[in-house]
Each structure stands twice: as structure tokens, then as C-alpha cells.
TrEMBL record:
The keyword Membrane applies. One of its GO terms (molecular function) is vitamin transmembrane transporter activity. The lineage of its organism: Eukaryota, Viridiplantae, Chlorophyta, Mamiellophyceae, Mamiellales. GO terms for cellular component: plasma membrane. It holds the Pfam family Folate_carrier. The chain crosses the membrane at residues 145-166, 306-328, 468-489, 495-521, 556-576, 596-616. It comes from Micromonas pusilla (Picoplanktonic green alga). Residues 1-67, 442-462 are annotated as: Disordered. Residues 445-454 have a biased composition (Acidic residues). This is Uncharacterized protein.
């Protein structure tokens, strides 16, 4: 009975240590007195270890300097270089701005594309996201990314096959069916590729394209999975050692100060890696799209065949497949630190993954800042998808049907200009978006230490949460302003400028959103692994140094679920808004104004909540199930846990 109670107590202590982790905090505080006491009881070899006190580390950054610093870092640099190389090759598509032109030159009309082809991509988005979640749970995120890359290659291959082999179906009498057809629909139905109706062939290619786009959620899971979550800096003794450090089985042998220092440095590097990864991947995407659009436009002006652009796209997709096959190794997907030889990393079942993901999602939403970014993504992503698909139609409407006014905006030149401007905006925002966050947390911690505040004051609402809500409100307001400006403008150049401003605001802010959500999801996923490890310690099993079986594959799967869920919610919002505008048969300008009204309402809601939460402290208090408050029993557990850390040899 006593052993069972002690085991339960150790599990509760470990779970409290993991649950107290704030996903947006950068550990700037020093180890507590318990940690210093533990280090004093160690060997003399640790006495000469350099102190971690002094000047705080540089703040994380997603700007150009921060990305270059992360690329040079030996711990995360090689992996970040592989991520950027894969992204650059995958997004290098010189054929992308000319897809409609290819279809129209091969016999498909613009009406058929709008009515029959492109809606197939929209309808396939939600099933594709479900497939990505299932594949990530069963096969892992790496294999899901491989399937998505292959799906992208199949899409390009089917498009090239359509361009080369489409022809009119010939009847037994030897007369082309489309020659006798006077109706436009009959003409399109007469087109075949390898005996398959051309419309069905193109629709199938759009379904493959939807899965290729959906697999990006699994790629985000890999990108944000390896860096360890950032624990709370309030107590390194409990935050960094979430379960006893054991040599084989049972109680700990000693508290290693050097290992604690190394763990602290690794967490600091992980915190800095998330902004650099998010903004670096976004910058690589925009830069690759910009360069590929310029190259595609230049090749067409040099009288290169249109099909050659799609051939180049196919080769770059093949290159990205080679990168993921050769560089994204299984060690990155399933990585275990200091686990005994008897331990095995098993692929979690679908039920287990779903259960863990629900708990991780609840932990994410309990943090106000991360919850705000999730809501921002759901509110803004559908509008971004709508603008990306319809901005050229708005430009054509502003031109009044005059092709000379819209030709400059129809193809790759203006698309390249948009991506270049968004690239610069992403780096600019990334350079300044994270310093204030670290400053707020550091100032609050220093004030708490000077005033001798207890753990009860930790429930005070952080300024970062209010700053996050204000940032979401401001960015949504900027998006609404650009939409209204584009809808009311009467000159094509002015419309294009407002649309470019929209893309700059969205791309830059979405990078900050991805970094915040990824860090929060990784922290929640890390809590689950620490809780699982604490059970094994309490039952007399062995554990790693931090008491957790660090499976990056498990964390990547949970991340893929979170990002896919956000994308699915955004899709549902998009479908609902699109249904309202279709029901009322609105024109393109009215549709832009409707989207602007929706974004304006969301911006006002974020702003009101920020003002209300600034004065009502309870709004930003974490939910008790995610971050339990300290009790007398918990304090006793902490005392017992700290005493275990000072044991020399048993």
C-alpha cells in the first residue's frame, strides 16, 4: 500500500511538472535553491561547471538574422537546412500561373473550369485532410509527406498527359463526335485522354492536388516536432526533471547539475528554433514561388512550349521527393533520448492517437495566447483562400473587360511581385514579433522574484496574452482594410496593390501564428509523453533523464492532427460563407465586401476581448485541468521530490 501511494505521488508530481509548462515562455530564470542543493551533493567534477547566470540569452527571432543564426546552430541547423531545401523544391512551380491557359488551349472552356474542374479541388479538401490524419497516425508524418509529394507528381503528370494526349473521341463511323456537337458541353464531353473523359481526368488530378496540399499539415508536424517543449522557468528542479533520474530501476542516484544546464540550453535553443523554422519555411515558400513565376514568364516570352513549364515542375517535385527520402530519416520521426535497451517505440494505435490528440488540444486551448492564434487562423485562412482564387477576377472586373489593362496581372509577373513583397514582410515581422514576448515574461518573472510572490500570483494574466489578442485584432483589421480597398477601387493597379497588401499581412502574421501554435502543441504533446513515462517510473520501470520517452513521431502526429483540424474548421467556414454568397448570387465585388465584413467582425471581437481581458484578470487564468493549482498535498509531493534529487547513492 505504501509503495502504491508513493508511486501515485511520483506520477502526480511528474504530471504537475509537465502541466505547468507554458508553451510561450522562454526559460530566462535560473535554477531554484533545490537545484543548487542538488548540484552541491554531486561529484566534484561538477563544481567547475560554468554558471548559467548572467546575461540573458538573445531573444528568438524569425527575421533574416534569426534564420541565419538557426542555420549555423549545430543542434538545429542541419535539420532546418533540409526543411528549407525540401520546401524550396516543392514550391518551385513555374507552371502554376499558367494552368488555366493550358486547359483552355487544349479545348476546355473557362465556364467548364469554373463549374466542373476547380470545385473538385474544393470538395476534396476535407476528405484529403481526413486521409492525412489517418495516414499520419498509422504510417507516420514522414511517410505521409512522401505520399503527398508523390501525389503532387501524379497531379503534374496527369496535367502533362492531358496536354499531350487529349483528343476528340472518334465514333465508329469515323466522324469526330465534337465536330457534330454544337453545344459547348457536348464538345467538352467529346474530349478524352487515354479513353477516359477529359473532364473526369482533370477532376481526378485536382483530387490528387488536394491531397498534396493537405499533406503540408504532416510536414508542419515534422517541422515542429523535434525541438523539445519549453518548460516553465519557475522551478528547474521540478520542470526539468519530470521523473527521477535512474541508473536502471527505482530511485535516483544523483542530481546532475551539468545535465540540468545542458537541458536548459537545449530548451532555449528549441524555443528559438520555432520562430526561425516557421518564418524560414514561409520565406522559402514565397521566394521559391516568386523565382519560379519569373522564370516561367521568361520562358514563355522566349517562345518555350507551355508544356515545358510543367515538365520543369515535375522535375522539381521529383527533387523534393528525393530530399524527403534521403534526408528525412526515421531518427527524426522516432527519436528517443536515454531510453533503456528494453524499450521499444511502437506506432500508436488510431484510438490511442485520437485520445492523446484530444487531450493535447484541450491543453493547447487552455493557453489564451495559443487559443487566440487558433481562432485567428480559422477566421483568416478561408478569406485568404478566397482572395487567392478570385483576385484576378476582381482585377478583370476593374478593367471593364479591356484585356490591355489586365494582361499585366494575369500571369507570372505580378504573382512574382506579390510573393516578393510578402517575403520581405515575413522577414520584417519575424525580426520584431518575438522580442516583446520575451521581455514581458522576463519582466514579470523578475518582478515576482523581487516582491517574493508565491505561486498563487502566477495566475496573474500575462501581458503577452493581451498583446496576442491585440495583434490578432490589428492584423484582421488590416486584412479587412485591404479587402474593402480592393473592392471599392476602380483602377486595376490600385486593386492589385490592395491585394498585394493583403497577402503581405496574411503571410507575415500566419508565420507568427504557426510558430505559436506549433510551440503550444509541442508542449501539450510533451506533457503526454512525460505523464506516460511517470507511470512507468511509479510502477518500478526505467525512464529517461527527464522521465519521458521522447518520441518525435508521436509529437509530429499530434501536431499534424492539430494543424489539420484548424484547416478543416477553416474549410467549413469557407463553405458556409461561399454558400451564403452563392445563394444571394453576389458579384465578385460584393463577395469581397462580404468577406471584409466577416473579417471586420472577427477583428472587433478580438479587440473587445483584449480590452475586457486586460481589466478582468480571470479571463486569462489557465484552466485547472491543464495547469492545476498548488495544494498542500502537492507541496508535500514537491518536498519529497526535491529530497529524492539530493540522494548520493542508495
Amino acid at each position: 500500500g505504501g509503495a502504491t501511494a508513493a508511486a501515485r505521488r511520483r506520477r502526480r508530481v511528474a504530471m504537475r511538472a509537465g502541466a505547468s509548462a507554458d508553451p510561450l515562455r522562454v526559460p530566462l530564470a535560473e535554477p531554484t535553491a533545490d537545484a543548487h542543493a542538488g548540484s552541491a551533493s554531486g561529484d566534484d567534477a561538477h563544481d567547475d561547471a560554468p554558471s548559467t547566470s548572467g546575461r540573458p540569452p538573445s531573444s528568438p527571432s524569425g527575421g533574416l538574422r534569426g534564420i541565419l543564426r538557426a542555420l549555423r546552430d549545430p543542434s538545429c541547423g542541419p535539420r532546418l537546412r533540409r526543411l528549407l531545401l525540401f520546401t524550396s523544391l516543392r514550391e518551385f512551380k513555374p507552371s502554376e500561373p499558367f494552368l488555366v491557359e493550358l486547359y483552355e488551349t487544349r479545348g476546355l472552356t473557362s465556364g467548364a473550369l469554373t463549374r466542373d474542374v476547380f470545385p473538385s479541388w474544393t470538395h476534396a479538401r476535407l476528405p484529403a485532410l481526413i486521409l492525412v490524419c489517418a495516414f499520419a497516425a498509422r504510417l507516420g508524418c514522414r511517410r505521409t509527406v512522401i505520399l503527398g509529394t508523390v501525389s503532387g507528381m501524379v497531379t503534374v503528370g496527369m496535367t502533362v498527359s492531358f496536354a499531350l494526349f487529349v483528343k476528340a473521341h472518334v465514333s465508329k463511323e469515323g466522324q469526330a463526335e465534337d465536330e457534330a456537337a454544337s453545344d459547348e458541353d457536348q464538345h467538352e464531353e467529346a474530349l478524352h485522354v487515354f479513353g477516359v473523359p477529359a473532364l473526369a481526368w482533370v477532376r481526378l488530378s485536382q483530387a490528387f492536388a488536394a491531397f498534396a496540399f493537405a499533406s503540408h499539415q504532416a510536414f508542419l508536424g515534422i517541422a515542429f516536432s523535434t525541438p523539445s517543449p519549453s518548460p516553465s522557468p519557475r522551478s528547474y528542479a521540478s520542470a526539468y526533471v519530470s521523473a527521477p533520474y535512474v541508473s536502471r530501476i527505482g530511485t535516483p542516484t544523483r542530481f546532475d547539475a551539468r545535465r540540468i544546464r545542458e537541458e536548459k540550453e537545449s530548451v532555449e535553443n528549441a524555443s528559438k528554433a520555432f520562430p526561425a523554422t516557421s518564418h524560414g519555411v514561409k520565406a522559402a515558400t514565397l521566394l521559391s514561388t516568386c523565382v519560379s513565376a519569373v522564370i516561367g514568364q521568361a520562358l514563355l516570352r522566349s517562345n518555350a512550349p507551355l508544356v515545358s513549364l510543367f515538365a520543369i515542375t515535375f522535375l522539381t517535385q521529383m527533387g523534393s521527393l528525393i530530399v524527403v527520402l534521403c534526408s528525412f530519416t526515421e531518427e527524426e520521426e522516432t527519436r528517443v533520448s536515454r531510453v533503456d535497451e528494453d524499450d521499444e517505440v511502437d506506432a500508436p494505435s488510431l484510438i490511442d492517437v485520437f485520445r492523446r490528440t484530444v487531450r493535447a488540444s484541450r491543453a493547447i486551448v487552455s493557453d489564451p495566447s495559443v487559443a487566440a492564434w487558433c481562432l485567428w487562423s480559422v477566421a483568416s485562412a478561408p478569406t485568404h483562400a478566397f482572395v487567392a482564387a478570385n483576385w484576378q477576377t476582381l482585377v478583370a472586373d476593374a478593367g471593364g473587360g479591356d484585356e490591355t489593362k489586365t494582361r499585366a496581372f494575369a500571369y507570372g509577373a505580378w504573382l512574382a511581385a506579390q510573393r516578393a513583397a510578402a517575403f520581405l514582410a515575413t522577414l520584417f515581422v519575424g525580426a520584431f514579433a518575438y522580442g516583446a514576448l520575451v521581455t514581458h515574461h522576463s519582466r514579470e518573472e523578475e518582478e515576482g522574484e523581487e516582491e517574493g510572490e508565491t505561486s498563487e500570483t502566477s495566475a496573474r494574466p500575462p501581458r503577452a496574452a493581451t498583446t496576442t489578442l491585440a495583434s490578432c485584432s490589428f492584423s484582421l483589421g488590416a486584412l479587412s482594410f485591404s479587402l474593402l480597398g480592393a473592392s471599392f477601387a476602380r483602377r486595376t493597379t490600385v486593386v492589385a496593390v490592395f491585394v498585394t497588401f493583403f497577402f503581405c499581412v496574411f503571410e507575415a502574421t500566419s508565420s507568427v501564428c504557426a510558430a505559436a501554435v506549433g510551440l503550444g502543441a509541442a508542449s501539450a504533446s510533451g506533457f503526454e509523453t512525460r505523464a506516460d513515462a511517470s507511470e512507468r517510473v511509479g510502477d518500478g520501470g526505467s525512464a529517461s533523464f527527464r522521465g519521458e520517452k521522447k518520441s518525435a513521431r508521436r509529437r509530429a502526429t499530434s501536431l499534424a492532427f492539430v494543424f489539420a483540424s484548424l484547416s478543416a474548421f477553416g474549410y467549413l467556414v469557407d463553405v458556409g460563407t461561399q454558400g451564403v454568397t452563392d445563394l444571394r448570387k453576389l458579384g465578385v465585388r460584393e463577395r469581397f465586401e462580404t468577406r471584409a465584413a466577416f473579417v471586420t467582425i472577427a477583428s472587433a471581437a478580438f479587440g473587445a476581448f483584449a480590452v475586457f481581458g486586460f481589466f478582468v484578470k480571470s479571463v486569462f487564468t489557465a484552466r485547472p485541468e491543464a495547469r492545476p493549482s498548488a495544494t498542500f498535498e502537492d507541496d508535500a509531493d514537491d518536498a519529497e521530490f526535491s529530497s529524492l534529487l539530493t540522494v548520493e547513492d542508495l
